[in-house]
Write a structure and sequence with these properties.
Elements: H1 3-22, H2 27-51, H3 56-76, H4 83-107, H5 114-123, H6 127-147, H7 150-155, H8 162-169
Helix pairs in contact: 2-3, 2-6, 3-4, 3-6, 5-6
Length: 170
């Protein structure tokens, strides 16, 4: 499959997902979530400019999910502070922090990822803003789209039972 077909497929897929996200009853929560993610990604980008290494966005990936899942829980209100939701948020947090630790352990002390090095060479002196758009905001948008699934999960008012654990683990 050619790169053009892959890119077009991704654009169509992301457009459909974005449309779905914007017509849900959770639009304001989603928009606030996008703001939190954009602010977090921007801070990580500023740090990457100081250390001259865009690979730190990969390390941040898991932490981004932790930040946004807790934000969504708090933004929905204390009515949703149930055992089931705390269990779900704890699982997401454990996964995200484990992923951050794993990628951090693997990447810290090593040179910048080859993909980012190639993009840095291509962009030259303009890489500082190219990295923000091409690396950081892109990952932020993907993080936002994936984490949007947390809202309907958190809005369910069932107690934790065997079926919900099996569904969550499958």
């Amino acid at each position: 499959m050619s790169n053009k077909v892959i890119r077009l497929s991704l654009i169509i897929f992301m457009s459909l997902i974005t449309y779905f996200l914007l017509v849900t009853p959770f639009v304001s929560t989603l928009m606030y979530g996008l703001t939190v993610i954009t602010a977090s990604i921007t801070v990580v980008w500023l740090i990457s400019l100081l250390v001259k290494d865009s690979s730190i966005v990969d390390i941040f990936w898991g932490t981004g999910f932790v930040i946004v899942v807790w934000f969504y829980l708090f933004s929905l209100g204390e009515v949703y502070f149930t055992g089931r939701n705390l269990f779900f948020v704890s699982l997401v947090s454990l996964w995200g922090l484990r992923l951050t630790a794993h990628i951090g352990y693997r990447n810290i002390g090593k040179p910048e990822d080859y993909r980012y090095q190639e993009w840095r060479a291509e962009a030259g002196k303009h890489y500082w803003w190219v990295s923000y758009l091409r690396v950081f905001l892109l990952q932020g948008i993907i993080l936002w789209m994936l984490s949007a699934l947390f809202i309907p999960i958190l809005k369910v008012e069932d107690a934790v039972n065997v079926f919900s654990i099996v569904w969550f683990c499958s």
